[in-house]
Design a protein that fits this description.
The structure is a homodimer of 393-residue chains. The first copy, chain A, has helices at 7-25, 30-37, 41-53, 119-134, 174-182, 193-204, 264-267, 269-275, 283-295, 299-323, 333-340, 342-352, 355-358, 372-387, 389-392, and strands at residues 28-29, 57-60, 74-77, 82-89, 93-100, 104-112, 142-150, 153-154, 161-164, 169-172, 188-192, 213-218, 222-228, 231-232, 327-332, 362-364. The first copy, chain A, is an alpha/beta fold. In chain A, α4 packs parallel to α5 (174-182).
Chain lengths: 393, 393
């Protein structure tokens, strides 16, 4: 039960709204901001001056418009000066980037990730990548924090990875290990890769403007990032979206989680490779080889892909009945599977979903591609700045 | 992308917050309001004066406290003067109530509902119950609207019932039919019974203070009202929460929806009666007779109840993995089934849910009992008043 905000809170909200607008939309004229935010010109002027004073935006004249009269000043996010570090911990590699306000990747490093590294061994590698990139950041630049995308269940409170199917991690304190390596100057936020990618696609990708979105992300396992009513669904502890462990076959195939018949045993890497008669194979390349074989008419691969596509539609139908979304996005290996078996996915989805729940659903692939986890990890860090721009500055 | 609120919006938010507080908590001293809402004494005084001027609250001295000094004035919701009409459309009956601000049922009428009535035939019965109760309302009282709880999928925008398993309705315009009967003076909001009951339990029932809640409601079908991050999950069109149509058995038993193997075919009325060898029976009494027979040791009834309990735990585990809630509430026939087979429910839930998703989950039955749909329907109507108290007055 909260009362309305104080004067100071309103100013903070307005500063955050203006900064978020240029962060998402890029350079914007004062006139457009006035319309978009519903504030009068003098308020926009005062807010812009405050943000410019803190070095978060810059103002300048727009390019020649060819129209008469004094042009409206353009407000730009200070992308070169204000940035976040973003990490993505993936099966075989670690990715690190320096991402400017506005969402531009300014610098990046990719590292091999030997399987078997724990959080304490991973954190120094991430910190080293940061130090290397830091040398190239302008000396007066402002780092507003670091965000990390990782496969697995992440405790909201402190970034503990409870269960990471990709990494094999169980209760690995990634958030605190990385914070220890980076020191007090850089705050760390850890998020599940599907949540983070959903956040990115919602902020500046294919789901911009959609308030009800399911982003299905496949890797070794399958998880979902969910936007409901315009907000990220996190659940009580941060573990929501474990849709890969929706059991779809009682006494089905054994799952990495120790149970049987989880959805990901039918649509995940292991299940698809097993169905294609390639149980010994591993990794995304092996999976792409199956799609490729199916493309070339290999009967067993074709059957495996169609069957997995049918199961993909089956589970998505359940989620559509539960969430009534506007959009379902297929990311990671789910993108590959969806593109290889779209007919099966659609057919099963239409057979199993309730018509009312399905009627406005669009099926999409991500717009941000491979960079979505990095962009989303950066958004985790920017989110704090946008909530209270002058405090973080 | 919205900017912070204007002065006028803040005042409205504060008025709403104060009114909501006394609506939920009942009579509250100004001192408590100051603490609870984080506003200073003079602001609380001014807001209270505005609300009292509009007849929405009254102020008075509290009962004798035994303490020295001038007692803090007590603010009370004007329950006798400000009210909503609430309806619940159930399998065999129509329930109508006049509910005062503060959530007290001031008057009620129960009517038999012959199966087979459509929305146009139902609306006059609801309107007649309203007119009857209206005679007993104080002449200066203020009706702020009507809310309706109905089984089925309800379009958010206009209260069209897309599919009502209890009523057999398909695309019945309940919202507009009732609005036509009631006239312009009474605005109508229609909600799915599970959503509405969840809203009620979250506002003033067993889930008060819980931000992530699944309220599972059983009747002929099974649906869920979901609170995520403190807010009602509605989905894009208003159809979210159709968990009864999560398919759990491919090629399973036929469902009323035309598909096969939906969860409700295992835990709903028809499935349970079929498993107990009573396929011809119908309705809640028949269901209670099965639980009763199981209680008395009838082997077939016992097996049917245990099996349904296991399936109940199975589906709840899937939902726990998807939502990571703090609380699952079992309402309607799901309450009966949960109480009859709690051991099976818990056992399957613990076997199938991921430990991290399950670790803070409490299983509960509703606090508001049979009145939850009525209380929640009234809350739908009150919600508009609380969003902007002086406008609605």
């Amino acid at each position: 039960m909260r009362a309305g905000p104080s004067q100071e809170e309103i100013r903070r909200q307005n500063l955050g709204a203006l900064l978020r607008y240029v962060h998402v939309h890029g350079a914007t004229t004062r006139a457009e901001l006035t319309t978009a935010l519903g504030l009068n010109r003098s308020t926009i002027g005062a807010l812009t001056a405050d943000l410019a004073g803190a070095g978060l935006v810059s103002e300048g004249t727009p390019r020649e418009t060819g129209r008469a009269g004094r042009p409206s000043l353009v407000v730009r996010p200070a992308s070169e000066r204000v940035y976040a570090y973003a990490y993505s911990i993936e099966v075989d590699r670690l990715r690190a980037a320096r991402v400017g306000l506005g969402g531009e990747v300014l610098d990046r490093r990719d590292l091999d990730r030997p399987r078997g590294l724990d959080a304490a061994e991973t954190a120094p590698l991430l910190a080293a990548a940061l130090k290397e990139m830091h040398q190239y950041a302008p000396p007066d630049a402002l780092c507003i924090g670091a965000g990390v995308a990782v496969c697995g269940m992440v405790r909201k409170a402190d970034g503990l990875v409870r269960l990471g199917p990709t990494t094999g991690w169980v209760d690995e304190p990634l958030g605190t290990a990385l914070a220890d390596e980076l020191g007090l100057a850089v705050s760390v936020t850890v998020g599940n890769v599907a949540d983070v990618a959903a956040f990115a696609e919602h902020a500046r990708g294919v789901a911009a403007g959609c308030d009800n979105v399911i982003y299905l992300y496949g890797d070794v396992g399958v998880g979902a990032g969910i936007i409901a009513g315009g907000r990220r669904l996190t659940g009580h502890g941060g573990y929501s979206g474990e849709v890969g462990h929706m059991v779809v076959v009682r006494a089905g195939a054994p799952c990495d989680c120790g149970r049987r018949g989880c959805w990901e045993t039918e649509i995940g890497e292991h299940g698809l490779l097993r169905a294609a008669g390639r149980s010994e194979a591993r990794g995304r390349d092996a999976l792409l080889a199956v799609f490729d074989a199916a493309d070339r008419g290999d009967a067993r691969a074709t059957t495996a892909v169609r069957q997995a596509g049918d199961w993909l539609g089956f589970g998505v139908a359940n989620l559509v009945n539960i969430f009534n979304p506007e959009m379902v996005i297929f990311g990671g290996t789910m993108r590959d599977l969806y593109l290889a078996a779209a007919a099966q996915v659609r057919s099963r989805l239409h057979a199993n979903a309730l018509p009312a729940c399905l009627e406005h659903v669009r099926l999409r692939t991500p717009k941000l591609g491979e960079d979505a986890p990095l962009i989303g990890a950066a958004e985790l860090a920017f989110d704090r700045l946008l909530a209270d721009p002058l405090d973080a500055g």
